[in-house]
Amino acid sequence: MPSPVIIAQDQNSSVVLTADASSLTINPVTVTAPVGWHGVDATAGTGGDIAVYGSVEGDWGIVDGSTARPSYRITVHSGASVTARMGNGIGVALGGASIINHGAIAADNPVNANATIGISIGGTNNNTVLNTGTITSPTAMEIHGSNLVITNTGSIDAGNGILTYGQNTTITNSGVIECDGHGVIMRQMAPSLGLNVLTNTGSIIARLNSVASAGASIDRIVNSGLIVGDIELLAGNDLVDNRQGIIRGIVQMGDDNDTFYGGASDEFIRQWFGDDYIDGGEGIDTVTFEGSNIAAVVDLGITTAQSSAWGNDVYLNIENVTGSIQADQIKGNDGANLLTGDKGDDTLAGGRGHDTLIGGLDNDLLDGGDGEDTADFDGTIATTVDLRLATAQNTGHGNDTLKSIENIVSGSASDRLTGNSDANRLVGGAGFDTLSGGDGNDVLDGGADNDVLDGGPDRDQLIGGGGSDTLMGGGGNDTLDGGDGDDRAVFSGGRNDYVITTLADGSVMVTDKVAGRDGGDLLRNIELIQFGDQTLVLPLPTEPNPPSPTHLTLIGTRNVDHLTGGDGNDWLSGAGGNDVLVGGSGNDTLRGGTGLDTLTGYSGKDVFVFDTRLNSRSNPDKLTDFRVNEDVIWLDDAFFKGIGKGSLDKPGKLSKAAFWKGAKAHDASDRIVYDSSKGMLYYDPDGTGAAAQIKIAKLPNKLPLSHAAFFVI
User: Which domains can be identified in the chain, with CATH numbers?
Assistant: First the structure.
């Protein structure tokens, strides 16, 4: 009658079970098989349990090639190890096997690493694997059969993680799976459909696919942990639920009717065939057709199924779309969309938000719609764009038509960008660029290399960037910042037509005495001032007794006002209209009043005042240069309810609980919300979302903003 086998002493030979063995226990001893032998060979045994409390080493660690016995269990206990020098760590051929690892399994094969597996089960059904320890191998697990149950709470460090071949597979990971190749691959081998479920609350990190569904089974991938790497779906009506997790990779939809639910992270979904349901959730989410030979037809403003050659698809909470290499038709929604056409004669329509449109090559129609929209021509091709033209123009990327576009971004070549009568932002990037703002209050940014910037009429901001730049403010009160290099500011009149004042912070104010010509320009990082009759080198010699600064009080009208302070501590109030307020030097107070105002404090510790009725559409202001730890924001408690009390004479501090950094309030105490990814500042009346949050202002993105920047008046 078979009896248990117990290894109680170290041995330098293989443990080979015979029909007399009913089970095997390896005590805390060392079993080292010679070259050509396995650590434990249980093929001829009767199928009893194997328990390892010590260490086992051989060409294979533990092998059982028999398929003619009932199921049994192999357990590697805590502190124990199984090491394979030339093959699998544990290899079992029968079905119904249960392999439990609380210790360490390591497998290697210098000759054929691709055929080396930490745990291999070749049986047909009802196999179970539990890993709470560590597995190190070119492939951690390869499990065959139906009704598989695999649980990992430990650590897997492998070339490939978990490979299954069968149907009705359940994989649960709360540990760490880190792979140079694939993380989890579920292959459906039987002709009938099954249900494979992967639940991840831990981490799956892979250089290739983190998760792949390779077969016609129905797969459910539920992630509330971290997945790094692409997720690839093939046939079957599959589900990816990432509402509570993070995916850093592309989710490739499959051939059938798939469903994707996104969460708070920024997700990328590659569209494929079938009637798919895609809900991006929170975050900035992208649907891409990149590289496809079938045109994308997408309207993000439609919340029901929309038909195209790809199927009848639903897109919800999607911000960005990337098209195919064909002629795409992509429309945005009310949000800030990034629409990319790639190749082909594309039609991109932005909608109502502040959108960015990238047509790519060929002849594109870029229609920004409402909002402040940007056409992006980044790349190495020289770009020529004139926003005054309503018809097709040769931009260098194709014969493109631009409608309702306010801003242009170009790439690393030598570009020529011309604005229109709107307030434009023209960004040249690298290369020797020529930027002309035209009418409107423009921002021109030359970027690297030697650029020529011409603001034109009105109040402009010119930024030279790197290189030796030439900056011409033109009419209006402009701001010229040369950046690095030897930069030149050019004025149209003679030297005696201008008053030049060096301010306390080293910047220079150049004021034209001739009315209606160059106005008063503020110069920073400028080395040369060129007039019609001479050129001055900065810095200028200092006066022996410079005059004391004058503190100004400037109050606008109900119309559009342009108010500029000096080098004192000034008070600027815009009243009504879409005003432009510039503080200059000193500790200034800027109050936009009603309207869509643009407020620039410049140097000093400035105060921005919000004391009018809130309206997301007609009253948010733009703060161009808010500096944390220097500037502050005052909020009137008559309009900002629930933020505390204060007065002009004695401003009160905003409580820490009333401020939240995120896309929206997260609890009932939140009132002031800063979305750092977009630079948007909101007021939430109740902190619960029952009442919609109200846009207050647009600030620079990603400020280290906190409650300390806000005071109540």
Answer: 471-537 (no CATH), 553-712 (2.150.10.10)
